[in-house]
Amino acid sequence: MGTTQLETVPEPKYWHLKTVLTEAIDTDFAVGEILPNERELAARFGVARATLRQALEQLELEGRLQRRRGVGTTVAPPRVSVDVSTPCLEWPGAEQEVWQPLDSVLAPPPAAVARLLETEAGEAAHTVRRIRVAQGQSVAAELIYIPPSSVPELSAVDARGVLRELRRLTLDSQDRSVELGSARADDAKELDRLPGAPVLVVTTRYAAAGRIAAVAVATYRADTCRLTFGESGDPSADIPPRERPAS
Fold first, then answer.
1. Gap between the Cα atoms of 141 and 131, Å rounded
2. In b/e form, how buried is each residue of 136-150, taking b as 16+ CB within 10 angstroms?
3. What is the CATH number of the domain that holds 40?
4. Helix and strand tally (H, E) in the chain?
5. What share of the chain is helix, strand, coil (3-state, %, to 5)?
6. How many Cβ atoms sit within 10 Å of the Cβ of residue 153?
7. C-beta pairs of 62-65 under 8 Å, 24+ apart in sequence
8. What CA–CA distance (Å, rounded) separates 240 from 211?
9. 215 is in which domain, residue-wise?
10. Is residue 8 part of a domain?
């Protein structure tokens, strides 16, 4: 990485430095490679270490770097590609899915979810908790809310049993929305992030027999996931290797 003049740049120094570091990461470093220490980087770019830390923190937030205690700052792997398009109808819990069911409880959902379910506030729903793992780390957590009226013949209240009963219904339609959010305490714990960390929230409503049968709220780590809208209806978790450029 070479040096650059930052004094004449109108934007904040740390932001311009972030841009310079991004270019260097793309051209000079491979995934998993350790960057020089802060003292060396600050001297090389002629900035204060506080400015450098701001740039590094922003790159970590964007998922370009990983800062590991005892190791240093390394180049992060590419984000997990997750297809959130809806070209085909399918209930959650299909055998080929990469989600891992954790547990299920019967409790009133949040008011916002109750509105999506078109149920009364305080009315209980089965809440199935699932998690998605890629490369040994949790990248997404999901809560699926199912009113008891959708699964009246339920014989087992465990997560798999609830989803299995839900799939007995004929799915009429589904709609999906994506928005940027902040990790709640429970999500942060599941995803190994601090509360308030940026996340991508995917909300899906499933309709059957002319009513909303279930609502799924999936929370993805914004630093490790990128949502795609392709032709395939199956979520993809392919992580292509990033080759180091030839010198």
1. 4
2. eebbbbbbbbbbeeb
3. 1.10.10.10
4. 6, 10
5. 25, 30, 45
6. 6
7. 62/223, 63/222, 63/223, 63/224, 64/22, 64/25, 65/25, 65/35
8. 40
9. 80-228
10. no
Q: Write the pLDDT tens digit of every residue in 143-202.
A: 999 999 999 988 888 999 999 999 999 999 998 888 888 888 888 888 888 788 888 899
> What digits encode the pLDDT tens for the residues 198-216?
888 999 999 999 999 999 9
Q: What are the phi and psi torsion angles at 157 (to 5°)?
A: -100, 5
Q: Report the alpha-carbon distance of residue 86 to residue 230 in Å, rounded.
A: 9
pTM of the predicted model, to two decimals?
0.70
Give the residue among 15, 20, 18 at the shortest CA–CA distance from 4: 20
User: Among 93, 91, 114, 112, which Cα is nearest to 102's?
Assistant: 93
Domain shared by 98 and 216, yes or no: yes
CB 63 within 8 A of CB 222: yes
Do 144 and 183 form a contact (C-beta atoms < 8 A)? no
The residues with which 105 forms a beta bridge, in sequence order, are 127
Which of 75, 90, 124 is the last residue before a domain boundary? Answer: 75
Contact (Cβ atoms closer than 8 angstroms) between residue 109 and residue 127: yes
